[in-house]
Amino acid sequence: MTEIDVLIIGGGPAGLAAAIAAHEAGCRKVLLLEREPALGGILRQCIHAGFGMHVFKEDLTGPEYAHRFVQQFHALGLSAQCNTMVLSVTPDREVTTVSPTFGLQRFRAKAVVLAMGCRERTRGALRVPGWRPAGIYPAGLAQRFMNLDGWMPGRRVVILGSGDIGLIMARRMTLEGAQVLACVELMPFSSGLTRNVVQCLDDYDIPLLLSHTVIDIHGRERLEAVTIAQVDDQRRPLPGTEQRLACDTLLLSVGLIPENELSRAAGVGISAITCGPLVDESLQTSVPGIFACGNVLHVHDLVDHVTVESEEAGRQAARYAQEGQQARGSDIRVRDGAGVRGLVPQTVCAARVTDGVPLMFRPSAVFKDAAAVVRIDGEEVLRKRSRIMTPGEMVRLVVPKDTLERHAGTAELTVEVES
Fold it and tell me: 370: which of 211, 321, 363, 392 lies 20 to 30 Å off by Cα?
């Protein structure tokens, strides 16, 4: 059994930022575990630009953004084990791993940071009728094939869903010579960033068909075509709107799911809305000493926000490792109001706040000329106006420390969207 101060699971942008922050907060026995052969996570395959505008004030590619943190990680002399699979995490922070290099290992950590990221929803979760031919891929897998392995998935492409990876792959495959016939979205709005809709679809004349879905898949050995149809307000296909699109590739960009099998096994409470751990203002889960950050906590739209959040998780994990569990006052329950979905964190203790508390959520629909309003026990304490809010872009509010202190002992904080 190896003793560790702070153990981080996941070597992507969240894990790297948490490890660096924990070291800078004074912890010297920091270990990062990563199942891939190299650090950097999903950013290694994201060769498009658009990263780092908030953290570095520069427009970087994914590998460039990750490389800066990997360089800093190694410059600080931090330890990482790649090709290492975490088998289990217990509530008392005992971690069991296996790897080709080190074999079976066990660690006991004073604090654990969960930073495993998320995975893509697959065809099996969609229940689309049809055979199981070759040519159907999650968009992120197709991205890996192209950008890391140099394989071209197909030539005539339909994309189901308008998540950011699907939008980016529409442009990527077009640039490589494929014909992207359409991006088909079940909802009446895109689930990706507006800038990606403009830069990846509009700029390349790729149709975005809102309130449409794939209702049938054709082909036995290789995909031959898909049938799409318009849907009504209940998301049911409308008879007479069917179109058959001949294609050899169908990319699925239908949502991401936080990787929380280890979290559940450790007894961590999971939110039914975000599918990530329930956390407090310090990003500590329901199990003392276990913290969560990045896409394993809730799926982000910008990696810059992942970095900021994960740095806080690393600092708080280091503090726990050094001081242990601190006494808490009464918690304020954080609740989704009208137009709000997936608020994080879910509880706040005013007595434990050292600075303003960031609240993050996604709007439940498209709102124009709207405001995000924070109320504590019915009293408005913060209002932030926006020209437009969409489900594809997260809203971030910071409730000042003095505001929370004035309302210490209250029961509920609510955030809602007012048009």
Answer: 211
Q: How many residues does the chain have?
A: 419
Among the listed residues 405, 410, 325, the one whose alpha carbon sits nearest the alpha carbon of residue 357: 405
Q: Per the structure block, which two tokens stand in for 271?
A: 């939110």
- What's the pTM? 0.94
CA max distance for the chain: 66
Residue pair 136/224 in contact (Cβ under 8 Å)? The answer is no
What strands lie across the sheet with 249-252, from one edge to the other? Answer: 136-138, 249-252, 156-160, 179-185, 208-210
* Structure-token match 């070291």, residue found: 23
Burial of 347 (C-beta count, 10 Å sphere; 0-12/13-18/19+): middle
> What tokens appear for 345 in the block?
């964190």
Residue 206 CA to residue 196 CA, distance in Å, equals 12
- Residue ranges and CATH numbers for the domains of the chain are 1-120+255-326 (3.50.50.60), 122-254 (3.50.50.60), 329-419 (2.60.40)
Q: Which are the contacts of 403, defined by CB distance < 8 A and separation ≥ 6?
A: 376, 381, 382
d(CA 53, CA 68): 14
Neighbour count for residue 268 (Cβ, 10 Å): 21
List, for residues 40-86, the tens digit of each pLDDT value: 999 999 999 999 999 999 999 999 999 999 999 999 999 999 999 99
Residue pair 342/52 in contact (Cβ under 8 Å)? The answer is no
